[in-house]
Protein backbone atom coordinates (compact mmCIF):
# COMPACT_ATOMS: atom_id res chain seq x y z
CA UNK A 1 0.00 0.00 0.00
CA UNK A 2 1.36 3.39 -0.96
CA UNK A 3 1.04 5.82 1.95
CA UNK A 4 2.91 8.71 0.33
CA UNK A 5 0.82 11.87 0.34
CA UNK A 6 1.07 13.76 -2.92
CA UNK A 7 1.34 17.51 -3.20
CA UNK A 8 -1.07 19.42 -5.41
CA UNK A 9 1.62 19.75 -8.10
CA UNK A 10 2.32 16.01 -8.03
CA UNK A 11 -1.39 15.24 -8.42
CA UNK A 12 -1.63 17.58 -11.43
CA UNK A 13 1.22 15.68 -13.11
CA UNK A 14 -0.59 12.35 -12.87
CA UNK A 15 -2.61 11.22 -15.85
CA UNK A 16 -6.36 10.82 -15.47
CA UNK A 17 -5.99 7.03 -15.35
CA UNK A 18 -3.28 7.28 -12.67
CA UNK A 19 -5.45 9.56 -10.53
CA UNK A 20 -8.40 7.18 -10.88
CA UNK A 21 -6.25 4.17 -10.02
CA UNK A 22 -4.75 5.93 -7.01
CA UNK A 23 -8.22 6.67 -5.57
CA UNK A 24 -9.44 3.10 -5.95
CA UNK A 25 -9.91 1.43 -2.58
CA UNK A 26 -8.85 -2.13 -1.98
CA UNK A 27 -11.56 -4.77 -1.52
CA UNK A 28 -10.47 -5.22 2.10
CA UNK A 29 -10.85 -1.47 2.75
CA UNK A 30 -14.26 -1.38 1.02
CA UNK A 31 -15.50 -4.34 3.07
CA UNK A 32 -14.28 -2.79 6.33
CA UNK A 33 -15.86 0.52 5.41
CA UNK A 34 -19.16 -1.14 4.47
CA UNK A 35 -19.14 -3.06 7.74
CA UNK A 36 -18.53 0.11 9.78
CA UNK A 37 -21.28 1.89 7.86
CA UNK A 38 -23.75 -0.95 8.55
CA UNK A 39 -22.94 -0.74 12.27
CA UNK A 40 -23.37 3.06 12.20
CA UNK A 41 -26.74 2.85 10.43
CA UNK A 42 -27.90 0.09 12.77
CA UNK A 43 -26.97 2.27 15.74
CA UNK A 44 -28.99 5.19 14.33
CA UNK A 45 -31.96 2.93 13.67
CA UNK A 46 -31.83 1.55 17.22
CA UNK A 47 -31.75 5.09 18.61
CA UNK A 48 -34.76 6.07 16.48
CA UNK A 49 -36.63 2.96 17.66
CA UNK A 50 -35.96 3.82 21.30
CA UNK A 51 -37.03 7.42 20.76
CA UNK A 52 -40.15 6.28 18.89
CA UNK A 53 -41.13 4.03 21.81
CA UNK A 54 -41.24 7.08 24.09
CA UNK A 55 -43.60 9.09 21.89
CA UNK A 56 -47.37 9.01 22.40
CA UNK A 57 -49.22 8.42 19.12
CA UNK A 58 -52.53 6.93 18.14
CA UNK A 59 -52.48 4.22 17.02
CA UNK A 60 -49.49 3.16 19.13
CA UNK A 61 -48.06 0.93 16.41
CA UNK A 62 -48.30 3.61 13.69
CA UNK A 63 -45.19 3.60 11.50
CA UNK A 64 -43.42 6.96 11.51
CA UNK A 65 -40.60 8.14 9.28
CA UNK A 66 -37.40 9.34 10.91
CA UNK A 67 -38.24 12.97 10.22
CA UNK A 68 -41.71 12.44 11.71
CA UNK A 69 -40.11 10.93 14.82
CA UNK A 70 -37.82 13.94 15.17
CA UNK A 71 -40.60 16.48 14.62
CA UNK A 72 -42.96 14.71 17.00
CA UNK A 73 -40.17 14.51 19.58
CA UNK A 74 -39.62 18.26 19.36
CA UNK A 75 -43.33 18.90 19.78
CA UNK A 76 -43.64 16.46 22.67
CA UNK A 77 -40.61 17.86 24.51
CA UNK A 78 -42.00 21.39 24.09
CA UNK A 79 -45.34 20.20 25.46
CA UNK A 80 -43.66 18.56 28.48
CA UNK A 81 -41.64 21.73 29.06
CA UNK A 82 -44.80 23.84 29.19
CA UNK A 83 -46.30 21.41 31.72
CA UNK A 84 -43.26 21.82 33.94
CA UNK A 85 -43.29 25.62 33.79
CA UNK A 86 -46.90 25.91 35.02
Automatic annotation (TrEMBL):
One of its GO terms (molecular function) is DNA-binding transcription factor activity, RNA polymerase II-specific. Residues 28-80 form the BHLH domain. Residues 1-27 are annotated as: Disordered. Keywords: DNA-binding, Transcription, Transcription regulation. The keyword DNA-binding applies. It comes from the Eukaryota. Pfam families: HLH (PF00010). Residues 18-27 have a biased composition (Basic residues). Residues 7-17 have a biased composition (Basic and acidic residues). The keyword Calcium does not apply. InterPro entries: bHLH_dom, HLH_DNA-bd_sf, TAL-like. This is BHLH domain-containing protein.
